[in-house]
């Protein structure tokens, strides 16, 4: 043991999280389950109680939860080097796979076969996101106040207000209501003020400007530093920035990027790698990847020592509850907007509905549904001539 770190711990961290990065299909919930199996049951790095404390901490900071768990657990096992290596080894396999798919997409994505496959994949992605909203909503929406908050965020988002202001405004509103002695009065007061920061932070910037590496880096850095909730909330942030504000992507390209994030293992945030490559080649891919994941390493490093104090904070828990509900509202708004551009005929409508039923009722893995959607798209175009 060197400096409190067991001998061989760093190599153990690297091997474990690289393996999890390769086999980690199924989204953050599946990643967390795999990590628990490895570090609690098999290797006994931490107890279940400690694991849950770390998981709770990842929910209180922005960024991808499963990646932040890998960073936390790497730190627990091997100190600061483990913190860097755990997160990096979990991310790298997905980044390499996404880079390969991005290269294929840029060079062959406009071919008839690829276009036909994507025609079937996109409605499935809409259904996958809708099912995630349903599942997360059943957990996050507990009572009329969270429901009203989520609906309000949905309406304000559809009206074009800024997603960051809505997220943080909702978190602050819910915290004040929970902590107030007179909840009804506090709710009315905060509801009236919720739109003010959203208006102040409304959409700006110049649409359609040429891609610049500095703007690309800073935009993904902002997303990585402010995004709470499921990785699917990434849709709302990226649509606002890259489709509307900057005009660098179309809705179709954004959905293609999300589709790639779904069929690859590891964190959904590697969608940034795909977008970076599509916009600015290899340099753009590297900058986008570093920018979106860098805040997670910083936040974990800063928050890990604070765990004992934050764990019992009523205010922090209430803020997180509000942010989670707002994230669902944002997800619902962007899903509706994307569905309107993606579901354009009877085939895509039937495929979206059938995928939703299979996900909700049958529990079918989304990876298989996406593969089935691609096959259906190819078959449809072949039969339609």
What does this protein look like?
Helix content is 80%, strand content 0%. The protein has helices at residues 9-23, 28-42, 48-60, 65-108, 112-140, 144-158, 163-179, 183-193, 195-200, 213-226, 233-245, 251-263, 271-303, 307-311, 314-342, 346-362, 366-384. Residues 193-208 have low confidence and may be disordered. It is globular. With 385 residues, it is an all-alpha fold. It is built from 17 helices and no strands.
Quick recap:
The chain is mainly α.
Give structural attributes.
17 helices, 80% helix, 385 residues, mainly alpha
In terms of structural class, how would the helical and strand content be classed?
Answer: mainly alpha
Major β-sheet annotation: none
By DSSP (H or I, 4+ residues per run), the number of helices equals 17
Strand percentage, roughly? under 5%
- Helicity range of the residues? over 70%
Multimeric state of these chains?
Answer: single chain
What is the global morphology?
globular
Mean pLDDT, all residues: 82
How many beta-strand elements? 0
Radius of gyration: 21 Å
Model regions low in confidence, pLDDT < 50 over at least 5 residues: 193-208
Order of helices and strands: HHHHHHHHHHHHHHHHH
Query: What is the distance, rounded to the nearest whole angstrom, between the alpha carbons of the first and last residues?
Result: 67 Å
């Amino acid at each position: 043991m060197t400096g409190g770190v067991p001998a061989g711990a760093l190599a153990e961290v690297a091997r474990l999280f690289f393996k999890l990065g390769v086999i980690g299909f199924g989204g953050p919930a599946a990643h967390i389950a795999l990590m628990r199996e490895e570090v609690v049951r098999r290797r006994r790095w931490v107890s279940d109680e400690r694991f849950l404390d770390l998981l709770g901490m990842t929910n209180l900071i922005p960024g991808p939860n499963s990646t932040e768990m890998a960073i936390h657990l790497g730190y627990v096992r091997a100190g600061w080097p483990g913190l860097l290596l755990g997160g990096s080894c979990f991310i790298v396999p997905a980044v390499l796979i996404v880079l390969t798919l991005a290269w294929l997409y840029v060079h062959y994505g406009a071919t008839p076969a690829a276009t036909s496959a994507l025609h079937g994949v996109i409605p499935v992605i809409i259904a996958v996101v809708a099912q995630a909203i349903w599942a997360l909503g059943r957990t996050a929406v507990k009572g009329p106040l969270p429901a009203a908050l989520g609906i309000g965020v949905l309406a304000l988002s559809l009206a074009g207000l800024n997603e960051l202001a809505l997220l943080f405004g909702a978190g602050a509103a819910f915290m004040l209501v929970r902590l107030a002695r007179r909840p009804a009065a506090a709710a009315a007061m905060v509801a009236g003020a919720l739109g003010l920061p959203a208006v102040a932070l409304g959409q700006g910037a110049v649409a359609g400007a040429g891609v610049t590496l500095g703007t690309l880096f800073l935009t993904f850095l902002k997303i990585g530093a402010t995004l709470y909730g499921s990785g699917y909330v990434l849709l709302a942030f990226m649509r606002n920035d890259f489709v509307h504000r900057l005009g660098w992507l179309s809705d179709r390209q954004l959905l293609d990027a999300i589709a790639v994030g779904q069929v690859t293992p590891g964190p959904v945030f590697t969608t940034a790698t795909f977008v970076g490559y599509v916009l600015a080649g290899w340099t753009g891919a590297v900058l986008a990847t570093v920018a979106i994941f860098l805040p997670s390493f910083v936040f974990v490093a800063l928050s890990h020592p604070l765990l004992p104090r934050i764990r019992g904070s009523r205010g922090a828990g209430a803020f997180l509850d509000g942010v989670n509900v707002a994230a669902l509202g944002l997800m619902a708004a962007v899903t509706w907007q994307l569905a309107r551009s993606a579901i354009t005929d009877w085939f895509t409508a039937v495929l979206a509905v059938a995928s939703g039923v299979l996900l909700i009722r049958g529990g079918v893995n989304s990876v298989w549904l996406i593969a089935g959607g691609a096959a259906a798209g190819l078959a449809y175009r072949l039969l339609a001539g």
